[in-house]
Amino acid sequence: MSQMIAEVILPVSFCDSLSYAVPDEMMxxxxxxxxxSVPLRGKQKQxxxxxxxxxxxxxxxxxxxxxxxxxxxxxxxxxxxxFWKWLASYYACKTGEVMMxxxxxxxxxxxxxxxxxxxxxxxxxxxxxxxxxxxxxxSLQTKAKKQWQVLRVFLSQEDFHSQCxxxxxxLRKADLLQNEEVSPAALKAxxxxxxxxxxxxxxxxxxxxQADAPxxxxxxxxxxxxxxxxxxxxxxxxxxxxxxVTSSGKTEIYTQLIKEALAKNKQVLYLLPEIALTTQITQRxxxxxxxxxxxxxxxxxxxxRVEMWQRILKADGPLLVVGVRSAVFLPFSKLGLxxxxxxxxxxxxxxxxxPRYHARNAALMLAKIHGxxxxxxxxxxxxxxxxxxxxxxxxxxxxxxxxxxxQLPDILVADINEAKKKKQLQAMFTPLLVEKMQETLQAGEQxxxxxxxxxxxxxxxxxxCDWTPHCERCDVPLTYHKQSRSLRCHYxxxxxxxxxxxxxxxxxxxxxxxxxxxxVEESLHQLFPQARVARMDTxxxxxxxxxxxxxxxxEKREIDILIGTQMLxxxxxxxxxxxxxxxNADMMLNQNDFRAHERAFQLMLQVSGRAGRKGRRGLxxxxxxxxxxxxxxRVLHHDYKSFYVDAMKERFxxxxxxxxxxxxxxxxxxxxAKVAQAADYFANILNPLFPxxxxxxFEPAISKLRDVYIRKLxxxxxxxxxxxxxxxxxxxxxxxxxKDPLTRQVQVYFDVDPF
Length: 755
Ligand code: ADP
Ligand code: ZN
Ligand code: ZN
Known about the structure:
Blueprint: E1 4-9, E2 18-21, E3 35-40, E4 43-55, E5 68-69, H1 78-90, H2 95-102, H3 105-108, E6 116-123, H4 130-143, H5 145-157, E7 171-172, H6 173-178, H7 184-192, E8 196-203, H8 221-236, E9 239-244, H9 250-263, E10 267-271, H10 280-289, E11 293-296, H11 302-314, E12 319-323, E13 335-340, H12 359-370, E14 373-378, H13 383-390, E15 395-399, E16 410-415, H14 416-421, H15 431-442, E17 446-450, E18 461-462, E19 479-481, E20 486-488, E21 495-496, E22 511-512, H16 517-527, E23 533-536, H17 538-541, H18 544-555, E24 561-564, E25 577-582, H19 585-589, H20 596-608, E26 619-624, H21 630-636, H22 640-653, E27 661-669, H23 672-689, E28 694-698, E29 704-705, E30 708-717, H24 723-739, E31 747-752
This protein binds adenosine-5'-diphosphate (ADP) and zinc ion (2 copies).
């Protein structure tokens, strides 16, 4: 009888781990972090990861045994196992769900990963003798000139010296074929005659990155001061927030800090939002770090992911991983520094599937597990991070000057309503913006036009005055439900009738959903027929190559006006952009989301930051119908602090984060009655426990998807309550539902800190 039980994490969503008996012959070889193959639900082979061990008790005698130990050495680090546990606990999901997201597909099943082989050529043994080779060359030179040429190229490729053995020459077939003098037919003939022997060799898919001659970083006095303050804050705190205006040289500071961490033989994780990875930042980092750096993005293939995983697992020297949010799952063993660039970016939050984690918060926990220091950077910090910095939980370092004392751009407001009244609006352009565009084009400088239409299709406004109906309880614009032609609050579910008369201007309510980037492009062609115009939106977002090409051609000044959505704001550094236009600031403010104002402020300041990074001072024109709106005024004055105070007041009044925690509970099933039953079960128990803090259950904007009915319930949790206890309680309700035959099939899951 075996003495030990292993807790095995399996890719399932019904439990954290399952217990299996460890066969005696595996003892001494099996360790936490090793993969094993186990029987599960009748299936004989399911790959899992060993989490830990405990002693066998009498009541465990019926446990099934582990069938096979896959790894001689763990494929995960101890720190990762801790991290998985934390993720499952914080985000109220199962460790198995974390495993599904965290392990590359190639490691989740035994044989998914395929090593890459390439054909390599060598000379057959008999021709390695110089006398044989010489006579072969002589005969080929007269009878088969092309084959002779191939052989000559082969022999001249490697720089071998006279005493070198010909059998040492090995050349990739693909490389040889690159040479113009090599005819594929002649090469094939040499292979057929067995003069060349072809062998398959395993090669890495990870292309080595080349470092340039590293340029010394020479800080400006402001940068040096910020750099010193970061180290100072790390003496007493683990996390430091660098609040530096756009183009203040934050990236250069990160670069220096990374160099120093690597010099101490540490690993570094540098997180970036997906889109920023395609841009110049990686080029800049590559110059400094070359082969010490790995780039991890969402378009890496399954096999590349496995190779990167193994490379990091085996790394014993310094290593920099520049990656998107899922890079937090890589097997670091000695992280010394975590840099989270653009920490305010909402794309750090994963909403689907579980774990619904926020990569910034997860990376901070990962750093804590490793005892590493963290640096958050942004020109427009999230309210969450800035609050923690103000409370003294994070260090706070300000960098208020641009590098080389470039001035921040001059921001002007153009009143859309006034232009409309005076009949001066040309399509969606105010006279001020048209005039500035004209000037910029004449000077041969470039323009970025920003138009954010994310989610706008479900938010309606009065065609006459742009008034948008809001929920009185939640302070967010109402969502328009097409099917029922009614309005509903996306947070509390309260329904509202569609008004016949606009309460703001008194005219009959005509619906308007605004305009899209295609219309902007068309209007530009009419206004400036000579200008070269391009559009950067979700269509190109999915095509990494197309996006890179667009950025490159804008850099090369082949485009005069670039129209784009929020992706334009992310860390792009163009030299020749003089003017940035924000086409409709109101549309950004009218999102059905309590973070709309925060995001609008961030987007406007970030996109403004693209103007005038080199040379002359940049100019920004913001078009709006509410020029006196407080938020617009904050943007005009680059006034983050006042924006912060305003925004926090609202968050307090309506009990939103960072004052309160939010947890969304989602219910999904094909039968409407069952979804309702499950959701009501939660609501009936939670309502008396958290009076006034349970919202719903209600139908979300998309209430039915692929024949599955969806209900949602939101819980606001006061900071005085224990988040952990509440999550445990919710998980208890969830498992209760899953035991009831009537509701067992209803999918219930939680979104902690939803976006
Ligand atoms: P941020 O990340 O704050 O937006 P960057 O690091 O991109 O700012 O810096 C803005 C520009 O100034 C970049 O073109 C960068 O190369 C340049 N720059 C910043 N600091 C230095 C420095 N110390 N030496 C040389 N160039 C610098
Ligand atoms: Zn109106
Ligand atoms: Zn509401």
